[in-house]
Amino acid sequence: MTGGGVGASDELTVCEAEREPAPSDSLRTFGAVVQALRENAGLSRAEFGELVRFSKHTVESVELGRRMPDESFVERAEEVLGNTGALRRAARFLTRGEAGLATWFRRWARLERVAVSLCTYECRLVPGLLQSEGYARAVFEGTIPVVPDERLEALVSARLERQQMLYERPTVPFSFIVEEHVFRRRFGDVALMRGMLDHVLEHSAPRNVTLQLVPLDAGLHACLDGPVRLLETPEGRRFAYSEGQQNGRLIADVNEVSLLQQRYDTLRSQALNPKDSRGLLERLRGEL
Question: Taking the model in full, what pTM does it have?
Fold first, then answer.
């Protein structure tokens, strides 16, 4: 069936917006391969769409990594583009982008889920794994451009869902070092501030979670270049992650990761110990 007789499996543009995932690296790569093979065959998107019985719009969405291809799309594309098996094999590794996570953060989030240790230094805001719902909502409500309500709920849900790692993986050590001023920064009303501090105290209570505060009078220290996260994989590989305005960078270079780990370890010795850090948080709560 060709021409105007588009098959029901296409589902066309009526359902396209609902079905299109957030772009992921695997979807973009798969789409780029489809496009390269199509162009090598001398076919336009419209001509290719006729042959695989999907619309030109669908072909474009797949090639740009905006749509998870149907199994029928993969099979027909294979037949049209030479039956090499490349698309079938690649399709097995396709994943949707995680809703509510920034594109540049997704690779790190995937590593987080399998890490055997995780270290976080923050000087801007409460680390995401320790944020209360009220705090997370206030953070996202303050972003520019303004986040639509539906998107805001997805962001808050994704952040709270990530926090389950602290309890689901009780043998994995989670270390947090946070500047004292982060917990002094006011947001919302007193109830929200207390709720945030209570949430942090609760989530840092498990034995596998360590929270240390860098007091205001600690002076200058080794991590002044900005926030950093470090982790180790089950294979013993170490990665770091650095984030700034509208971007993030996954760091795999051994020397660079080693340097960041040294800075983190130095700061750990300069920060308050976990017991004193907890006491400081309790005093801050009592001052509200």
Answer: 0.66
